Structure formats: C-alpha cells, structure tokens
Amino acid sequence: MPELPEVETVVRQLAPRVIGRRVRSLKIYDPKLRVNQPQSVAGRVIGAIERIGKQILMRLDDEDSRGNLWWCVHLRMTGRLIWSSEPGPEIPPLRARLALDGGHILFKDVRRFGTMRLIKSIGELPPGGMDPLSPSFTPAALGQLLAGSRQEIKPWLLRQDRLAGVGNIYASEALFAARIHPRRLASALDSTQIRRLHHAILTILRQGIKHGGTTVSDFENARGESGGFQKRLAVYGRAGQPCRRCGAPVARIAQQSRGTFFCLNCQD
Ligand SMILES: [Zn+2]
Prior knowledge:
Blueprint: H1 4-18, E1 23-28, E2 45-52, E3 55-61, E4 69-74, E5 79-84, E6 94-100, E7 103-109, E8 115-119, H2 139-146, H3 153-157, H4 168-178, H5 191-210, E9 251-255, E10 258-262
Antiparallel strand pairs: 1-6, 2-3, 3-4, 4-8, 5-7, 6-7, 9-10
Helix pairs in contact: 1-5, 2-5, 4-5
Bound molecules: zinc ion.
Zinc ion is lined by residues 243, 245-246, 248, 263, 265-266.
C-alpha cells in the first residue's frame, strides 16, 4: 500500500509533465468509480498538483469562469497514476484515463479500492489526520495528538485520522529510529521520546521521498518504476537479520494483525 512518500513521489513526477496541459476528457472505464460529471473537465488546464495526506489533488482551471475543479485521487491498496504518451489498452487494470493535450494520465488499480472524485473546493474532502510534512506538525502537536490515547504507539501511528500518510513500513522504521518500543502506550511517551519520534517521522518520510518511495510488493511511480527505499530499510521486512545498530536479530511481532519489526535491544 502506498504511504506518504510513495504518493509524494507520484505527485513530484507528474507535476512537470502535466502542469499547464489542457484536459481533453476524463474517461471512466470502471463503473465502481462513481465520478460526478466527468465531462465537466474538458477544456480545462491543469494549474497545480498537490498532496494532502495520501490524497492526490489536481486543480483544473477554467477560462470561462465556470470556477475551478479539483480532480482528487486516492490510490488505496494498489492504485497507480502513470504518465503515458500513449492511451494504452482500455482493459483492466485501467479504471480511468485523463486525456491531455500531448499525453495521458492512466489510473490503473488491480484491486479497485482506489477512489476518485471531482470537487469544487478542497474543503469538500472528508476531514483527515494531520499531514506530517505540513508546518503544523510540531513536537507539541504530536504530543497533543498522542495525549489520552489508550493504544500502543505502533498501531497508533497507523491511524489515518491522527497522522495522515504513515503506514506499516514507515511506522516500524520511525520507531526504530526513535528507539521506542512499538508496544509502548502512545499516551505514556515522555517529552524527550515525543521529540525523538517527531524527528524520526520527518526524517524517515523525507528519506523515503528522496529515494523515490519503497516498493515491497507492487508500488510503481508515475513512470511505472519501483521505488528505491526498500534497500535502505533498517528493520521492516528484516526479521532475524542483524540490527544495523547493535547486531542483535531484528524481531517481528503482530499488532492488530499487522507485522511490526523492531530491535529488542535498541528500542525501549
Ligand atoms: Zn539493535
């Protein structure tokens, strides 16, 4: 499942290819995607592409004062947005195609959990958690989010209504970097641990983006390539292998039926 760095990678790769291009059409091939008035995108120009949490938003500007539209895509499990000069075959996993002057954005999605909508303002998006790369994500803000939680910190980090975009891979990696045991109670972290965790989340997400995301099973970027961060993971997927810090074997436990990887020696 793409996490924040993978989605950010897609946005950064699409931006120089699509901004300023005129939209010809939005074709929906999968009726499970319920998009209101897809014909309303025709003739608009892509003015901006942004990410909020794991939502990808493209602003479609209009010269005839119809007001702006936002094309919003959430990739969920297996969704991909791929830039292509060719339209490609109209068969699964293709679910939708945004045709532009000089190219196409293909929405491919094998498991079909991804979502798409057209909205008039970003305020219409369902409320989500804080984006950890936004300026409002500070150690104090993290402390406020954690306060009162009865969850263990690892499952807490996966809650999209608290922090949007941190998933299973980056949660294990951030806790290892912060030297915090994944079973610690979220509300029991002291201010030093909260500062370390805040720093670790930012560092891990930025490294993930720098290396083009992580490909464990099926993430592909907007060019149809794999990410590079999986080679740099410290603990995720490395059960039994030596900890990169102390050499002890990396442990694996299940929390809410998701695998958690950590070092018994380095994290407490
Ligand atoms: Zn260790």
